[in-house]
Sequence to fold (123 residues):
Amino acid sequence: MLKVINLDAYFAKFHDTFSPKIVAELNGQHVKLVRLEGDKVPWHTHDGEDELFLVLVGALDVLERGSGVTLKAGEFTVVPRGVEHRVVPHGQVKLLLFEPAGIAHTGAVRAEITKDRFDRLDV
Fold:
Protein backbone atom coordinates (compact mmCIF):
# COMPACT_ATOMS: atom_id res chain seq x y z
CA MET A 1 0.00 0.00 0.00
CA LEU A 2 1.36 3.42 -0.93
CA LYS A 3 1.95 5.91 1.85
CA VAL A 4 2.25 9.68 1.66
CA ILE A 5 5.18 11.08 3.63
CA ASN A 6 4.40 14.63 4.71
CA LEU A 7 7.68 16.17 5.86
CA ASP A 8 6.05 18.93 7.93
CA ALA A 9 3.90 16.40 9.81
CA TYR A 10 6.92 14.23 10.56
CA PHE A 11 9.10 17.14 11.68
CA ALA A 12 6.25 18.27 13.99
CA LYS A 13 6.62 14.97 15.90
CA PHE A 14 10.11 15.72 17.24
CA HIS A 15 12.30 18.62 18.28
CA ASP A 16 15.52 16.97 19.47
CA THR A 17 18.66 17.63 17.46
CA PHE A 18 21.34 15.32 16.04
CA SER A 19 18.97 12.34 16.41
CA PRO A 20 17.95 11.07 12.95
CA LYS A 21 14.46 9.56 12.70
CA ILE A 22 13.65 6.82 10.18
CA VAL A 23 10.58 7.72 8.12
CA ALA A 24 10.86 5.22 5.24
CA GLU A 25 12.99 2.45 3.75
CA LEU A 26 13.92 1.55 0.19
CA ASN A 27 16.38 -0.92 -1.29
CA GLY A 28 18.28 -1.41 1.96
CA GLN A 29 18.41 2.34 2.60
CA HIS A 30 16.84 4.34 5.41
CA VAL A 31 15.25 7.68 4.67
CA LYS A 32 15.81 9.81 7.77
CA LEU A 33 14.84 13.26 8.96
CA VAL A 34 17.03 15.16 11.39
CA ARG A 35 17.23 18.59 12.98
CA LEU A 36 20.66 20.14 13.56
CA GLU A 37 21.74 23.12 15.62
CA GLY A 38 25.22 23.81 16.98
CA ASP A 39 28.68 22.51 16.14
CA LYS A 40 28.62 18.96 17.54
CA VAL A 41 29.47 16.53 14.74
CA PRO A 42 32.98 15.06 15.04
CA TRP A 43 35.29 14.29 12.14
CA HIS A 44 34.47 10.72 11.07
CA THR A 45 34.35 8.31 8.14
CA HIS A 46 32.06 5.58 6.89
CA ASP A 47 34.32 3.04 5.23
CA GLY A 48 31.55 1.04 3.58
CA GLU A 49 28.80 3.59 2.94
CA ASP A 50 28.14 6.78 1.01
CA GLU A 51 25.91 9.42 2.64
CA LEU A 52 23.46 11.83 1.03
CA PHE A 53 22.66 15.11 2.81
CA LEU A 54 19.64 17.06 1.45
CA VAL A 55 18.97 20.41 3.13
CA LEU A 56 15.27 21.15 3.51
CA VAL A 57 15.54 24.24 5.73
CA GLY A 58 18.57 26.39 6.55
CA ALA A 59 22.19 26.11 5.45
CA LEU A 60 24.80 23.46 6.19
CA ASP A 61 28.56 23.25 5.74
CA VAL A 62 29.64 19.76 4.68
CA LEU A 63 33.37 19.64 5.28
CA GLU A 64 36.12 17.25 4.28
CA ARG A 65 39.76 17.77 5.22
CA GLY A 66 40.99 20.79 3.26
CA SER A 67 37.70 21.67 1.53
CA GLY A 68 33.95 21.66 1.77
CA VAL A 69 30.68 22.98 0.44
CA THR A 70 27.83 25.03 1.83
CA LEU A 71 24.37 23.68 1.06
CA LYS A 72 21.22 25.78 1.11
CA ALA A 73 17.59 24.61 1.16
CA GLY A 74 16.88 22.47 -1.89
CA GLU A 75 20.51 21.39 -2.35
CA PHE A 76 22.28 18.14 -1.54
CA THR A 77 25.65 16.47 -1.71
CA VAL A 78 26.90 12.92 -1.45
CA VAL A 79 29.89 12.17 0.77
CA PRO A 80 31.65 9.15 -0.74
CA ARG A 81 32.55 6.21 1.48
CA GLY A 82 35.94 6.52 3.14
CA VAL A 83 36.00 10.34 3.05
CA GLU A 84 36.60 11.92 6.46
CA HIS A 85 33.92 14.56 6.98
CA ARG A 86 31.78 16.51 9.39
CA VAL A 87 28.81 18.85 9.10
CA VAL A 88 28.25 22.25 10.69
CA PRO A 89 24.78 23.82 10.56
CA HIS A 90 24.20 27.56 10.21
CA GLY A 91 21.58 28.05 12.95
CA GLN A 92 18.66 25.64 12.81
CA VAL A 93 18.71 23.16 9.94
CA LYS A 94 16.36 20.40 8.78
CA LEU A 95 17.83 17.58 6.70
CA LEU A 96 16.69 14.54 4.80
CA LEU A 97 19.28 11.75 4.78
CA PHE A 98 19.58 8.62 2.63
CA GLU A 99 21.82 6.09 4.35
CA PRO A 100 22.25 2.33 4.25
CA ALA A 101 20.42 0.54 7.04
CA GLY A 102 22.92 -0.33 9.75
CA ILE A 103 25.23 2.64 9.15
CA ALA A 104 27.14 3.71 12.26
CA HIS A 105 25.91 7.22 13.09
CA THR A 106 29.35 8.81 13.56
CA GLY A 107 31.42 6.01 12.07
CA ALA A 108 33.92 4.53 14.54
CA VAL A 109 34.08 7.83 16.48
CA ARG A 110 32.06 8.07 19.70
CA ALA A 111 30.75 11.53 20.57
CA GLU A 112 28.03 13.11 22.68
CA ILE A 113 25.65 12.95 19.70
CA THR A 114 26.36 9.32 18.68
CA LYS A 115 23.23 7.17 18.40
CA ASP A 116 23.41 3.39 18.46
CA ARG A 117 19.83 3.03 17.24
CA PHE A 118 17.44 5.28 15.38
CA ASP A 119 13.79 5.92 16.26
CA ARG A 120 11.13 5.20 13.64
CA LEU A 121 8.37 7.72 13.17
CA ASP A 122 4.83 7.00 12.03
CA VAL A 123 2.20 9.62 11.37
Remarks:
- Strands lie at 21-26, 29-36, 51-64, 67-72, 76-79, 85-100, 119-120.
- The helical segments are 7-11.
